[in-house]
Design a protein that fits this description.
This protein has 2 domains: 83 residues, F0F1 ATP synthase delta/epsilon subunit, N-terminal (ATP Synthase, domain 1); 43 residues. The strands form 2 sheets. A 5-stranded mixed sheet has the order 2-1-9-8-5, with no helix packed on it. It has a 5-stranded antiparallel sheet with strand order 4-3-6-7-10. The model has no long low-confidence stretch (mean pLDDT 94). It is α+β, with helices and mostly antiparallel strands. Helix 1 runs antiparallel to helix 2.
Length: 137
Amino acid sequence: MPDTVKFELVSPERLLFSADVESVVVPGTEGDFGVLPGHARLISTVRPGVISVFQGGKVTDRIFVEGGFAEVTGAGCTVLAEHALPVAEIQRDQALQAIQDAREDVEDAKDDETRKEAMKTLEVAEARLQAVDVVVY
């Protein structure tokens, strides 16, 4: 059995990350899940949150994703993300402003569809702030 797992993070624009890693933790819709070498096949939706990449027993990369899909095979894990960026590039003050703006958009929504979109934007903004404020691993 291999001692690494191939991890790839892809956005609509390009391949963002590709490496053989010790393990990776993905924010699945039903909860975070870890992928180790030899993992069983799995397909999951991805919620807004942080992907943590492990090498040498520690987190080497933290990447914020706004959502998407993940496919796990025995050989690797591929995440197709709507949008992604390293957590280190998130500015806390901008994240706070995005939350305030999104809350105002929710309050000002004139119909259910607009409110639903504003709620999704708020969810992403709150997850982005949490990515900066909370280190889980």
